Amino acid sequence: MTVSKIKELVIIPETLPTISVDCVIFGYEENKLKVLVRREFVPFNDEVFLEWKLPGNHVRRNEELCETAARILKEQTGLENIFVKQFLVFSDPNRLKRRERDYEWVKPRIQDERVITVGFYSLVNVIDVDNSTLVEDANWANAYEIKDLMFDHNEIFDEAFKKLRYDLLHEPLAFELLPEKFTLTQMQKLYEAIFNTTYDKRNYRRKVNKMSYLIPLDEIQTGVSHKPARLYSYDREIYEKTRTERFDFRV
């Protein structure tokens, strides 16, 4: 058989078997920070274990990594053009073998036992998510109740959470999690939820009053039982024009 004929018989897989992307999709709802996780039923030793993992997939040959992350986000939530950011590469040769039953479950689904994964985190306003577009086995979990994920996904989640907190101190990313119109109290509660703390209201307001890109609107809340508060919006263009070399949100 000629070399050219042999080449014709070689089947090149659509995806790269040793490179994947795992996404930590953060959401915010009812003053709580949420994370999207995927349910799996894992059979092992005549038992079936209910387990959870982060959304992820292998990289297609014609994709850049950020395109893979965007595809995963679209597949999981139905959303497009959502903030997504790469944060770390996870290359432990045994990352899929942390627990025997997980590895036995995934082994028939992979072509190589070593898979290097690239971590991305994304910020989603849960209000924008139509639950009917979520994949059936996906669920929003409280970020502070994430415990026993499959493979090395706890490590990936922890690193994403750490990176999110760092980035929020240096970039106005919180607005990705808020509705288009929001109150200063809603904004404060979001930061408190992410940093698991409580801010002094006066110090917090003093800080946000310096933000020229935080625009007060001639609108107030409706349908609330308390005194309605003024609504604000975030102007990205003003931020880009007035941004300093280093944004600092420490209160």
Description:
It is a single chain. The chain is of the alpha+beta class. It has two domains: 12-170, Nucleoside Triphosphate Pyrophosphohydrolase (Alpha-Beta Complex), CATH 3.90.79.10; 174-242, Arc Repressor Mutant, subunit A. It contains seven helices and nine strands. Strands 1, 2, 3, 4, 5, 6 and 7 form a seven-stranded mixed beta sheet that branches. The chain has a two-stranded antiparallel ribbon with strand order 8-9.
What descriptive keywords fit this protein?
251 residues; 7 helices; two-stranded antiparallel sheet; 29% helix; Arc Repressor Mutant, subunit A
Lay out the secondary structure.
Layout: H1 3-9, E1 15-29, E2 32-44, E3 47-53, E4 56-60, H2 65-77, E5 84-90, H3 100-106, E6 116-125, E7 138-142, H4 153-170, H5 184-195, H6 201-208, E8 214-220, E9 230-234, H7 236-242
Parallel strand pairs: 1-6
Antiparallel strand pairs: 1-2, 1-4, 2-3, 2-7, 5-6, 8-9
Provide a count of the helices. 7
Structural class by secondary-structure content:
alpha+beta
* Global shape: elongated
- Provide the helix percentage: 25-40%
**Whole-number radius of gyration?**
22 Å
Sheet having the most strands: 7 strands, mixed
CATH architecture annotation name of the largest domain: Alpha-Beta Complex
CATH homologous superfamily grouping of the largest domain:
Nucleoside Triphosphate Pyrophosphohydrolase
Question: Any idea how many domains?
Answer: 2
CATH fold call of the largest domain? Nucleoside Triphosphate Pyrophosphohydrolase
Enumerate the spans where pLDDT stays under 50 for 5 or more consecutive residues.
none
Q: What is the CATH domain class of the largest domain?
A: Alpha Beta
What fraction of the residues are assigned to beta strands by DSSP?
25-35%
Cα(first) to Cα(last) distance is 72 Å
